[in-house]
Records
---
Amino acid sequence: MRPKTLKIGSAVVGAIGLVLLLMMVTVEGEPGAIPLALLLLATAGYIAAWLRGRSSKG
């Protein structure tokens, strides 16, 4: 996959994780494991796509 596609996918997953995190904190008063994992995976995916894009340009 191209780095731009990976960045967009990571941003979508991160947005879903953020919405779930805010909802769970509002409803239950504490964050859940799934929203935190989604945010962690989205961050890792975005960094991997950024590094892949950097290495392919140089």
Note: The mean pLDDT is 91.
---
Amino acid sequence: MDGVSKPINIPYRFMFMSLIPVFLFSTVIPEVPNSEFYMSLNQFLDKFFLGMVGFTSELFPFTAKVISNYVAVTTPFLSVYVMVIVGKEAVIKSKSGIKNTFSILYLCMTTIGFILLTALIIYMSYFSVTDLSQHNRMYRIFGFQPFFFALFSAIWMLALYLIIVLNFIYFFVLPYIILVKKPFAPK
């Protein structure tokens, strides 16, 4: 059992439980704010949160705004919990750790590619607005129905979880293992 690495225990149940509000919002929140409460919520999102950001649909702008703000605001905080669980489980059982057989060019190119991918995902989530109802045929279905938009947003939220956890592993766990040559075990 010493030479065999144990798979990392990822809290899938927690991650999927955090997707439930996305689907609840798609069924409960109206397409446009039609009452005093929803108008106040709309103003609150514009004033104190991110407003119209990420992915949206002009066919149901208010629903899309609520879902996009939920995904953009809560995912980084919920990912901290996932990182703590994954960090505690990221113990490699081999005595030698990861063998440093990667070339400098390979490490530089993968690091640059990973940084660019992360920057693209951050840009798409927080600094741009993409209307899925005006998109090409492949993504247009996600902009026509609130349920499909919620499905797309849930997949996007899982992708954000994945990219945040991979950043943690790539930029914290692996360098520790390579440089210190022993398993990573946070206190």
Note: The longest helix spans residues 146-180.
